[in-house]
Design a protein that fits this description.
mainly alpha; Arc Repressor Mutant, subunit A; 2 domains; about 70% helix
Length: about 180
């Protein structure tokens, strides 16, 4: 769900407030970068796509009708990134990278406990049994904390399909762990 601050910032952006635009960028750049690493390790490509996304956003600010700002960002970023990846290498299929799903975020790096590290390695092993779509849904729900409706938009599936993907993924993880 779009937060009140994002709603306010977006309204200001549509009225040419550059400070609000900068704030939206700062609020979302790390999450978009982390999401991009699930598709490619080419950090320059990810950064280029983020820059292009925000440039497009600024250039289209007057005409865009966005119901969910965060979902819009993820959908647009994913589409842009996949197009650029495909343009760079025609023969490599685009997949949600399974081995990257358990990479700890910057907050997780602060936790230096053996128990946490062990559990993460167990989850990483269990995640290998999930389909790419299940991995992506789990990442968006639990790592990016998106709503089911936003995940539905990003993954181009209906909301009940997202529920089913996450439910079946959690059941498989539970059995494995």
């Amino acid at each position: 769900m779009i937060t009140d601050s994002e709603t306010i910032l977006w309204k200001k952006v549509t009225k040419d407030h550059k400070e609000a635009y900068d704030q939206l960028y700062r609020n979302n750049v790390k999450a978009l970068y982390n999401y991009g690493t699930k598709f490619t390790q080419n950090s320059a490509l990810i950064e280029d796509c983020i820059q292009q996304l925000f440039l497009n956003l600024w250039n289209s600010r007057k005409s865009l009708k966005i119901s969910s700002f965060r979902a819009y960002l993820y959908i647009s970023f994913k589409n842009l990134l996949i197009k650029k990846i495909q343009a760079h290498s025609k023969s490599i299929p685009i997949e949600f990278s399974p081995q990257l799903i358990a990479i700890p975020s910057s907050e997780d790096k602060l936790i230096d406990s053996e128990t946490v590290l062990y559990r993460k390695s167990q989850i990483e092993l269990a995640m290998e049994d999930l389909s790419n779509r299940q991995k992506e849904a789990i990442y968006l729900k639990f790592y990016e904390k998106l709503e089911y409706e936003q995940i539905s938009e990003i993954m181009s599936v209906k909301v009940p399909a997202v529920y089913k993907l996450i439910s079946s993924a959690l059941q498989r993880l539970k059995k494995k762990l």
